[in-house]
Amino acid sequence: MEKIYGNIHSFESFGTVDGPGIRFVVFMQGCPMRCRYCHNPDTWQIGSGKKYSAREVAAEAMKYKSYIKNGGVTVSGGEPLLQAEFVTELFGLLKEKGIHTALDTSGITFSEANAEKYKKLLSVCDLVLLDIKHIDDEKHKKLTGFSNEAVLKFAQFVSDSGVDLWIRHVLVSGITDDDEYLFRLKKFISTLKTVKKVEVLPYHGMGEVKYEKLNIPYVLKGMQPPEKDRIENAKKILN
Ligand code: SF4
């Protein structure tokens, strides 16, 4: 069988925000989306990054075994589903070692054509952290360059597969922070059977310096993080 390599952007040894407990986080290289608020534009380019085999990444994660034994490993990005076979192999190796596995994804690459492939991945995945960027399709297109159809279908697919979901939603003033959209999002989330948590992530502009370095225009220049009461409001609606 041909050996699969993953294109990796970077590792984080002690992640505490991408899933339960202390986690080893693998950032995969490559993403088709162009979310206006993305704070990792350096992960966008597909096909670059450093090549690792799944065994090498699993060995890297296991160096931190004593720290992650009550947390686990999260594969993030970029968009990890672009390299689904690699992630499946990696998660398989980690499951053999009793490590909790989480996939942090936008779900944008989902289609009927790759459902079988994703089903295999989900069979070795304990938790999906799914970013729903915008519940309104037109607004989603404006925010990311893509329709949200695949994202919502993927959410349903994960739910039907019985895999736990944490839904994440970035709150941006004037873009996603609108009660009408938040209620619509809540209505959609209520149709999913395996949601264990809904996280509201307040927008921050900390990625802006990366855009300057990469010479990419930052469309949200000057955008402020949402006010505390708006964050509380979104949490209340969505939970
Ligand atoms: S899906 Fe994630 S990595 Fe890709 S552009 Fe959006 S925020 Fe950035």
Topology, please?
Layout: E1 5-15, E2 23-28, E3 50-53, H1 54-62, H2 65-68, E4 72-76, H3 84-96, E5 101-105, H4 115-123, E6 127-131, H5 137-144, H6 149-160, E7 164-171, H7 179-190, E8 195-202, H8 208-214, H9 228-238
Parallel strand pairs: 2-4, 4-5, 5-6, 6-7, 7-8
Antiparallel strand pairs: 1-2, 1-3
The structure holds iron/sulfur cluster.
Structure, explained:
With 239 residues, the chain is of the alpha/beta class. The chain has one domain (5-238): Aldolase class I (TIM Barrel, Alpha-Beta Barrel), CATH 3.20.20.70. Helix content is 36%, strand content 22%. The protein binds iron/sulfur cluster (SF4).
CA gyration radius, whole angstroms: 17 Å
How many independent structural domains?
Answer: 1
Work out the helix count: 9
Cα-to-Cα separation, first versus last residue: 46 Å
Summarize the helix and strand pattern as letters. Answer: EEEHHEHEHEHHEHEHH
Question: How are the strands ordered across the major sheet?
Answer: 3-1-2-4-5-6-7-8
CATH architecture: Alpha-Beta Barrel
| Number of distinct beta strands | 8
- List each distinct ligand once: iron/sulfur cluster
Q: Give the structural class.
A: alpha/beta
State the low-pLDDT regions, or none. Answer: none
What fold name stands as the CATH topology?
Answer: TIM Barrel
Mean pLDDT: 97
Helix content: 25-40%
* Largest sheet, strands/sense/barrel: 8 strands, mixed
> CATH homologous superfamily?
Aldolase class I
Strand content: 15-25%
Sum up the structure in keywords.
239 residues; alpha/beta; TIM Barrel; binds iron/sulfur cluster
